[in-house]
Amino acid sequence: MKFAVVVFPGSNCDHDAYYAVEHVLGQEAAFVWHKDTSLGGADVVVLPGGFAHGDYLRTGAIARFSPIMQAVQAFADAGGPVLGICNGFQVLLEAGLLPGAMLRNRSVKFQCEHVFVRVEQTHTPFTMACRQGQVLRIPIAHGEGNYYAEPAVVERLEQNRQVVFRYTTAAGEVTDAANPNGSVHNIAGLCNERRNVVGLMPHPERACELAVGSADGLLLFDSVVRALTQGVLATAR
Amino acid sequence: MRARVFVTLKPSVFDPQGTTVADALHTLGYAAVRNVRQGKYFELDIDAQTAEDARKLASEAADKLLANPVIESYRIEVGNA
User: Fold this and answer.
1) Is the residue at A10 inside a domain?
2) Active site includes A114?
3) Phi, psi of A205 (to 5 degrees)
4) Residues in chain A within 8 Å Cβ distance of B15
5) What domain range includes position B25?
6) Which of A137, A141, A166, B12 has its CA 20 to 30 A from that of A103?
7) CA–CA separation, A236 vs A78, rounded Å?
């Protein structure tokens, strides 16, 4: 199974994602430069964290126009599984592959810490190996992760069960204190209507081995392997 | 022609940066400052024959790139550079 890790100028979690896939998960990973126009026959696409194009203008706003994004859009349209992590999530929002936008954290600080997120939906290619309501311990590292969408959009996300991860306490309670950035409805991650595109602010690729404090993030990568193996997803090549 | 594009967060959107700036101004003693909203300002020097053409181009640029319609709105002023 082949994972494409898209590299923008300013990506800095691309190697973490590559390492998680190739050396922990044991699947094939390949870097794809943002100026490329082909994903090289990948089965899964990962948009990694970092500061694509320096986060100039707005996070993800310039990356959205990188040539590779047309291929990512086509891959997503064909039902292929796409995972946007942190800055990758921000790129997906700017590109319109997921609804909403990011605001500066309500603390106006760069938040870098382990947080707890509850799996709200297991019916996505990146969460099917999780239990419904399972609480994962995964780090965040961002200054602009304060998810915002118009109230009507948030309502639709909730109705369609598109909220995939929510910030909670260790016990899985949704509280304001457990919300590290002010995101509406404690939203930490969501999927598109078709459920094949998932974005989240926490970094699962940084939580794939107990040596780094948590291996909970590996569940997301295990999930997509299972999804593709079981043929839950249409192949998008 | 020069187009000036002012991008601001929509009134309904919380502005943590503006709030922080307001707090700092209050610390400096400017109690009269009720509220601060932070935005972005762009100057576009445009090869255009008429102000109308320049405005049209700047408006397209704002729609496509300079502003994110989910959270921001913009206004444009056009004049000679």
Assistant:
1) yes
2) no
3) -70, -15
4) 103
5) 2-79
6) A137
7) 5
Average the pLDDT over A162-189 and give the result.
Answer: 98
Residues of chain B below pLDDT 50 = none
C-alpha to C-alpha distance for A83 and A81, rounded to whole angstroms: 7
For residue A218, give the 3-state DSSP assignment: helix
Answer yes or no: do B68 and A182 touch at CB < 8 A.
no
Q: Do B16 and A58 touch (CB under 8 A)?
A: no
Whether B21 and B38 have beta carbons less than 8 Å apart is answered as yes
Judge whether A150 counts as a catalytic residue: no
Q: Among B9, B16, B65, whose Cβ lies nearest the Cβ of A106? A: B16
CA B22 → CA A107, A226, B18, B33, B35, distances in Å? 14, 51, 6, 7, 6
Active site residue A86: yes
Q: What is the pLDDT of residues A96-128, one digit of tens each?
A: 999 999 999 999 999 999 999 999 999 999 999
Residue type, A208: C
Q: Looking at residue A17, which CATH number applies to its domain?
A: 3.40.50.880
The CATH number that applies at residue B64 is 3.30.1280.10
A15-43 per-position pLDDT tens digit: 999 999 999 999 999 999 999 999 999 99
B11 touches A at CB < 8 Å: no
Q: Is B70 on the interface with A (CB under 8 A)?
A: yes
Query: What is the total count of domains within chain A?
Result: 1
Tell me whether residues A101 and B20 touch, CB distance under 8 A: no
First to last CA, chain B: 5
